[in-house]
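Narrative of activities, Objective 1.

The group set out to show that a structural description can be obtained from nothing but a protein's sequence at a throughput compatible with the screening campaign. Below is one input-output pair from the validation batch, recorded exactly as produced.
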Amino acid sequence: MIRLGLISLSLIFSALLSAQANFSGGIKGGFTASQVSGDGLAGFNKAGYCIGPFVKIAISDQISISPEILYITKGSRKPTNPDKGDFTSWGYIFHYVEVPVLLHYKFDRFTASGGLYVAALTKGIEESQAGLQYPVANPEMKKTDIGFAIGGSVFFTDHLFLEVRYTQSVSPIRAAPDPLNVVPWYDGGMYNS
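Output recorded for this entry:
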């Protein structure tokens, strides 16, 4: 699957280079709010960050493609809720190197985006109530996360923009740790959102 994706990307980039597309690039950084579907927790309560380079390949005045390489943290978190007498917390922290390839369509100062990503897991951590961290085990994490991304941007200048993006795994990142917590459309697995 990954080999087919790399071959497809190579063909796309070869076609773009032969079309003498315009190139630009930069560094992207920001914050994430994530959750893991299928872990029994709800809400985008896990704060994280992402940073990395991107290249923008302009095909026309309105259409461009941008491959990126991001170091990104994802996961989930059950925060305490003292108002309801719940003082327990728990969470997952996942570190990925993510390679999204997005197609952009520009409307004046606004841009709509969509595409696919492949991510390699560099570290998977489970955090206990006491703040202790240990590697995720039983069931183990899958080393690759594949998904889609959609979003939009608003440009303040040619070099400064604000982007909002939603990403979703399409294959499980881990089998569901609790067999009673099986959500049928997720096939009992855990997925990054």
